[in-house]
Amino acid sequence: MKAAVKSNFDAIIAGAGLIGLSIGYGLSRRGMSVLILDGEDTAIRAARGNFGLVWVQGKGAYFPPYADWTMRSSELWPKLTDELQEIDGPEIGLHQDGGLTICLSEAEMQKRFEKLDHLRAHQNGRFRFEMLDRATLKDIMPGIGPQVVGAAYCAHDGHVNPLYLMRALQNGVVKNGGVCISNTPVQDICKSGTSIRVCTKDGDFECQRLVLAAGLANATLAPKVGLRQSLRPQKGQIVVTEKLEQQLPLPTLLLRQTDEGGLMIGDSHEDTGFETSVTPDVVSGIANRALATLPGLADVGVVRSWAALRVMSKDGYPIYDQSETMSGAFAVSCHSGVTLSAAHALDLASYIAEGRLGQELDGFSQRRFNV
To answer: Is the dihedral of CA 365, 369, 370, 371 positive or negative?
Structure first.
């Protein structure tokens, strides 16, 4: 039997993934009463498959607002980490010592340089990167294979344990007086006087601020507040090895080593609808590139693998919108839940509390697709 929960809150968040928890934590740290409503156990969840990168390198190369927003979040990550560790206690596994994109040909090196140089050109010196030749990279990663030509290095990059992050954010919400209810998806939304009423199978709740952060479900929830979220699923598959001695001093787009020792391997991007099975051909392709990078992994055991769905907009960039027909309602959708967690908790939550999105987020509106 569930304990009784009050029916009125300053803010309600639909969705308890990394986006919803980050915003919920950000609102609660401002002294607002927060209710987070999570979906059913069978709900499609991007967070359960997250690779855990805090990544700047290459993001927004051809969309400056995204580059700025990503860089801002990277800069805020140490502050968020300090806050969460003070509240929650255990480490969340943040390492922000830089990251690598491994290149297996001169063509890959040139393509990567051109993309990062384009990004640097519109960042006014804020974004920095280095192209490392094979010899320099081998000093960092002695085990690289003969196919490896070099890598792009970016000091802004890093990684974190996404499960520890989710736990810390949820604990932060609760310790700030917030409430998280599982297995209670939002069924309907309507106006109730000057408040917003959120209807669920466990009862109705009212609030002044509503944030839709329900991943792919935002496509059906957003119209209830007069918004649209053009979203599609994109499948990614991940392989995890047995625990090893240190193999990777820095994370890469394909490989990262957890604090516990296991290697996470994965970089697939598949348009398969809502299908989430692990497929041998894709896993084989992921493994082959990992072996080309580090041939010593040939004898390493695989302990598990999984597939999950990213939340993708038409152009791959986040969607941030506020309703014009239901004051106080916002919708947030993106696939960079880890990287943007700090910006969502410390900047976006402040905007939502104040009732208006910041000017730097104007370019992320669904309106950009109305052309």
So the answer is: positive
Q: In this structure, are 210 and 327 located in the same domain?
A: yes
Residues 322 and 333 in one domain: yes
pLDDT by residue (tens digit) across 126-171? 999 999 999 999 999 999 999 999 999 999 999 999 999 999 999 9
> Which residues form the domain of 207?
8-53+163-230+317-369
Q: pLDDT digits over 258-275, tens only?
A: 999 999 999 899 999 999
Task: Return the closest-CA partner of residue 5 out of 224, 215, 174.
Answer: 174
279-286 average pLDDT score = 93
177 and 276 fall within a common domain: no
Q: What CATH number is given to the structural domain containing 207?
A: 3.50.50.60
Residues 222 and 322 in one domain: yes
Largest CA distance in the chain: 68
Where residue 1 falls among pLDDT bands split at 50, 70, 90? Answer: very low
Closest-CA residue to 180 (of 312, 35, 294): 35
How far is the C-alpha of 298 from the C-alpha of 361, rounded, in Å?
Answer: 45
